[in-house]
Amino acid sequence: MGPTSDDLDGLLDRSAPRTTVMTDSVADELTQLRVATSVETARVTARRPWRRPVFAGLASVLLLGGAATATAAVTNSWVPWAQTPVASMAYTLPSGVECEERIGNIRGQDPAAVEAVKNFYRTTDIESLLTKEKIASTIEWIRQDSNIAVNADGSTEPAGYGTVHYNADEEYQRAVTMIVTAAVSAELANQGIDGADSNLSSDGQSFCPGASW
Question: Which domain of life is it from (predicted)?
């Protein structure tokens, strides 16, 4: 049986990290983040409320990079919605770890907007969006963002690329999420749909065996 939201909330409360890393562009996402990892594998679940694309057409969204993370020892299983996802994709992190990410549980106030997002995922070769050039340019943008580490005592220090808090795998995974979300945003715009006004959101869960976040 997969972990429930209440199970994860309880585990997360008992396992808060000493250092929290956040960026200006994703601060409002922190309460949405839910991460589930095991000793041998890394599983991540994140809720993605819709945000209008910003800065060079990229959507300011969060999976892991540049924001708070929490770990908990839970069973190694996909959450219920991820057992029948709308879409899935595979990619390799800089460390060489291979990830599978599943996307689903798409919801919103406008049924037509929800169906448009589902149709995009069903008909798009998502992995073809993740070109080396696009990954590189997105990472370059991420590194221009303001990153601050907030310690347990409330003190702050620089975080992100070039600091002790930097994690190339997290940065890469964040870039993947941003690229895919930007592509969905572009498709919705082409159809005259405003994802934010439609209150669209979706969930994503990734499985990266051997990853060390």
Answer: Bacteria
- Helices and strands in the chain: count of H runs, count of E runs: 4, 10
| Closest to 16 measured CA to CA, from 66, 72, 83, 57 | 72
What tokens were used for 205? 């869960």
pTM of the model: 0.68
Read off the tokens for 38: 């095991």
C-beta separation of 89 from 101 below 8 A: yes
Query: What is the rounded distance in angstroms from the CA atom of residue 200 to the CA atom of residue 128?
Result: 24
DSSP secondary structure letter of residue 159: -
Q: What does the buried/exposed string (b/e) look like for 42-73 if buried means 16 or more CB atoms within 10 Å of the residue's CB?
A: bbbbbebbbbebeeeebbbbbbbbbbbbbbbe
Distance in angstroms (rounded) separating the CA atoms of residues 39 and 70: 14
